[in-house]
């Protein structure tokens, strides 16, 4: 599980020294580790972190994401305006 956290750190260029106090196994009847979730589940319950370019409105970008991923509902929290 913690390999997933370290992969995110590596990708973002972070240098965190993680101290794992206790590691528990999860029962997959009640949930999954994030890196084990199927893409459909990630899209249904997840968040797309997006760096919007200047030009299109936040509404337009949300619509494009909805169309590209074939989703029924898409929204945005706050503004997606640059700067």
Description of the molecule:
- This protein has 83 residues and is mostly helical.
- The protein has 2 domains: 1-36, no CATH class; 37-83, no CATH class.
- Helices cover 36% and strands 0% of the residues.
- It has 3 helices and no strands.
- The protein has helices at residues 2-12, 39-45, 58-69.
- It is flat.
- The model has no long low-confidence stretch (mean pLDDT 78).
How do the helices and strands line up, and which of them pair or pack?
Blueprint: H1 2-12, H2 39-45, H3 58-69
Structure summary:
The chain starts with a helix and ends in a 14-residue tail after the last helix. The chain is mostly helical.
Strand content: under 5%
Beta strand count: 0
The biggest sheet, with number of strands, parallel, antiparallel or mixed sense and barrel status, is: none
Give unreliable regions as ranges. none
Shape: flat
**Whole-number mean pLDDT:** 78
Q: Give the N-to-C terminal Cα separation.
A: 35 Å
Radius of gyration, in angstroms, nearest whole number: 17 Å
Taken together, the total number of domains comes to 2
In DSSP terms, counting alpha (H) and pi (I) runs of 4 or more, how many helices?
3
| N-to-C series of helices and strands | HHH
């Amino acid at each position: 599980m913690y390999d997933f956290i370290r992969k995110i750190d590596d990708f973002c260029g972070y240098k965190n020294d993680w101290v794992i106090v206790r590691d528990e196994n999860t029962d997959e009847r009640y949930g999954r580790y994030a890196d084990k979730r199927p893409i459909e589940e990630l899209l249904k319950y997840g968040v797309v972190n997006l760096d919007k370019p200047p030009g299109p409105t936040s509404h337009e970008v949300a619509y494009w994401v909805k169309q590209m991923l074939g989703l029924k509902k898409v929204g945005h929290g706050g503004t997606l305006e640059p700067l």
